[in-house]
Amino acid sequence: MVATKKATTKQAERKPVVIVDDVHVIYKVYASGKRVTRGQGKNGIFSKTSNLREVHAVKGVSFTVYEGESIGIIGSNGSGKSTLLRAISGLTPIDGGSVYAIARPTLLGVGGALLPNISGERNILLGGMAMGESRKDMENAVDEIAKFAGLEEFIDLPMRTYSSGMAARLKFAIAAHRDHDILIVDEALSVGDKQFQNRSEARMRQLRENAGTVFLVSHAMESILETCNRVIWLEKGLIRMDGDPKKVVGAYTQYMDEISE
Ligand SMILES: Nc1ncnc2c1ncn2[C@@H]1O[C@H](COP(=O)(O)OP(=O)(O)OP(=O)(O)O)[C@@H](O)[C@H]1O
């Protein structure tokens, strides 16, 4: 009886974890392909503005995520999925609107930057500290992370000597070594070789189970349906649909079939 009452109260007090309020992201790119950073467009070293192109990748997206929700983000290529999640994690600056989160969201994927001229071990220390962990905890975690990444013999070598697969494995292992309140997964399942993929998939499953909130970007509808209890479909930087996974995935699949005919 008490348990039922508790559960009902809990449902009534749905706790917001992430609020995305009218978020816009605009990339500024030179037609030559050169990326422009803020402040360079006007009177900077690249003062020739005629070739400057703007890509409005996210055009006013709003939604609220509640505790315990696992959100799948789907949409066709270039619809703004990765940009939106990078904006939520704070890696991509936003050009309008706001993001509020109860904890710092961690982006678990192949995107994070490691430093090429320092060793794998020092990257583990710095990477972990950049995610808010103490130096001591990271020092204790080095061996385990190196082992998970399968890089024990290489961990004292500079990162620039690693293959791209080795570097991706290390990035995944650093981000995945502890549980996160808000976890953002950007198709990280495809990291590394088959053996590492199995290991990372198992760890991902564990992380998803332990995380309070999970965002998953994927083109694999099976993993979206398996993982998420809410799905947001983005198209051309706008939310096209938001709700029940089966309904949203069904509508998206139909749309993709129609446009490919
Ligand atoms: N660094 C960047 N500089 C300029 N434009 C970018 C950059 N990153 C993405 N874009 C553009 O922003 C738009 C959204 O890209 P984004 O990568 O967020 O889409 P996506 O939905 O994740 O795509 P995909 O499914 O192909 O991974 C695209 O038009 C893309 O060309």
UniProtKB/TrEMBL annotation:
Pfam families: ABC_tran (PF00005)
Alphabetical keyword list: ATP-binding, Nucleotide-binding, Transport
GO cellular component labels: membrane
GO molecular function, one term: ATP binding
InterPro entries named in the record: AAA+_ATPase (IPR003593), ABC_transporter-like_ATP-bd (IPR003439), ABC_transporter-like_CS (IPR017871), ABC_transpr_TagH-like (IPR015860), Bact_Polysacc_Export_ATP-bd (IPR050683), P-loop_NTPase (IPR027417)
Domain ABC transporter: 39-261
Keyword Nucleotide-binding assigned: yes
Family statement: Belongs to the ABC transporter superfamily.
Protein name: ABC-type polysaccharide/polyol phosphate transport system, ATPase component
Organism encoding this protein: Rhodoluna lacicola
Taxon lineage: Bacteria, Bacillati, Actinomycetota, Actinomycetes, Micrococcales
